[in-house]
Amino acid sequence: MKKTILFATLIMTACTPEQEENLGLKDAFSDDFVIGMALNTQQYKEQDSRALPILNKHVNSITPENDMKWMYIHPEVDQFYFDDADQFVEFGLKRGDFIVGHTLVWHNQIPDWVFEDESGEPLSREELLERMRDHITTIVTRYKGKIDGWDVVNEALNEDGTMRESKWYQIIGEDYVAKAFQFAHEADPEAHLYYNDYNLHLPDKADGAARLVASIQAQGIPVTGIGMQGHWGLDYPSVPVLKRSLDLFAPLGLIAITELDIDVLPSASGYRGADVTRREDLFDEINPFVEGLSDSVQTLFDKQYHMLFDVFEEYSDNIHRVTFWGVTDGDSWKNDWPVEGRTNYPLLFNREGKEKSVIQEILD
After folding, report:
1. Which residues are catalytic?
2. What is the pLDDT of residues 53-93, one digit of tens each?
3. How many beta carbons lie within 10 A of that of residue 239, not counting itself?
């Protein structure tokens, strides 16, 4: 039987001061959406003493940051590695969380052999489809009834909304996305199935994602909705831009705000995106906050998170989940991307695991 989450209605006026102090994000938004975080290996193995109190107080949904990506869970043609994924799922089941699997089909963090035969030659369309089916079916079937939702296909679009020329696209064609959703639905008909991408606040890319998902749904293949990666900054997205995308995606199903963080550091090149292969050189001007944020930047950070949660709550009939990409600032990939060695502050908890003041402001 599919696991469900029961939400209790909170009447703030009836809370004692002690109850208000212990109120977490998952409680405050219990009538609106679940609150998630992406966990690294040490966190779901309960080896990170900073993370556990945060998860217990604030979180009722979890996503594995890396350990279910192809290179880790399916490293060889005939070899799956499930030990870490099993522990992740058991951790979520024990807590009663809404569990998200990330990610089944992506062009990054994937071994070269996936696209090649024994001689190193490219697979045919039929061979690669069969390899995709085997991967998806094996993993989704293993966690059927345990994992509640999947990021089925990740980042299949260019910034202008056209299809990315990945090896999936080159060998199979545009319908590789539809096929992935078909295989995932066949393996677990009850699971949430999301298309997940970054920069979906940008009109061209948002339009492309909406067209892609609508075209798959028109074929009778279930797509639960869109995962809107929230790798954003101090001055973007604006309220009108964000609302445009939410209005566009709402008719397509549930919306998940995924991978949420706010980059507070300047870019060397002006790039705004989340291409994990991108790298820039380190110099002092783009690492200005080694000793901590300035008051002016902290104010902008707080204001942006305020705005985002105001909009999320306004669209709570359509938004099912808000997931932060990491637990504390020290865990965030933003410290090393696209420039290694920087000190970033993109999340709601500092490096010691302490709540930032903006959390209480959001709760209030």
Report:
1. 155, 259
2. 999 999 999 999 999 999 999 999 999 999 999 999 999 99
3. 12
